[in-house]
What does this fold into?
Amino acid sequence: MSSRASPAIPRTGLMNCYRGTGDKQQRQTRRSPPDMPVNKVYRVTTIDRVAADLGESVGWLHDVAMEMDTEDGVIWVYGPGDEQVMAFTDFGIETLADLIKIHKDDPTLLRR
It folds into this structure.
């Protein structure tokens, strides 16, 4: 006859060994509601810099960019007083480059 060194551990129905996957109490690790988007923009580039990088005039680029929405990656940066400047996320620069190509393919869309 053999004896057990310790009493049997009763099963609770939770068989996963990783904490949280089988835990009855799910812990909330998010700090924002699940349907709220997380802003991952860590830098923007001003229209003057983008124009210089792309070799375009700021005025023409401004006219083209006026077709863009915030979802397209364009934002306005406000400074002291009435100072404001158009700026672009990395995605906004890609979108702007696509718009430039469209306007160069059909110059009648916007007079240069």
User: Anything to note?
Assistant: The chain is about 30% helix and 10% strand. Residues 45-109 form one domain. The longest helix spans residues 90-105.
